[in-house]
Write a structure and sequence with these properties.
about 15% strand, 6 helices, alpha+beta, NADH Oxidase
């Protein structure tokens, strides 16, 4: 848990575009982590969902990292809209994630994830970024504020359970 808290510190202090912080994170263990694993193992979308569910089960903790994809008012067009005002007028659609999302907010998420796995690696804690765990978290109502969520399982094991699966 101490390593998990240090990973959360890395997420919190990661740089954000224009200093606008819409990154959300938490640690799941026990029954909450098992809910994610069970949801993944019950999916028939693709075999890797079940595989990742088994990996989440082996982890001692699961870090969730999400972002609210609201625009940062730069009118850059990276989201596919000409202006941020046009972006704001579009009704959000739900799938694995809620979108559209500001490109800068997605970059913020990437930086936060990079900081998280860097810290876990420096602490010699096995980890990997799972799109699937974020999908499960979104479906189950974790980090409701976030439009896009990723999961980072953490494990202390003799062999990294997230590789050579």
């Amino acid at each position: 848990m101490e390593a998990g808290r240090l990973v959360l510190a890395s997420i919190r202090t990661a740089p954000k575009a224009r200093g606008l912080d819409t990154i959300y994170s938490c640690i799941l263990t026990g029954n909450e982590k098992q809910k994610i694993a069970d949801w993944l193992k019950g999916q028939e979308r693709a075999p890797f969902f079940e595989r990742d569910g088994k990996c989440v089960e082996k982890a001692q903790a699961l870090i969730l990292v999400g972002v609210k994809g609201e625009p940062v008012n730069l009118n850059c067009g990276g989201c596919g809209f000409e202006t941020c005002d046009n972006f704001k007028k579009v009704e959000k659609k739900n799938g694995d994630y809620t979108g559209p999302n500001c490109i800068f907010k997605l970059i913020d998420l990437g930086i936060a994830l990079g900081s998280a796995v860097k810290t876990a690696g420096l602490l010699n804690v096995d980890n990997r970024i799972f799109y699937t765990a974020g999908t499960a978290a979104k479906a189950l109502g974790f980090l409701n504020e976030a439009d896009v969520i990723m999961g980072v399982p953490l494990a202390l094991a003799g062999k990294n359970p997230f590789f050579d699966r």
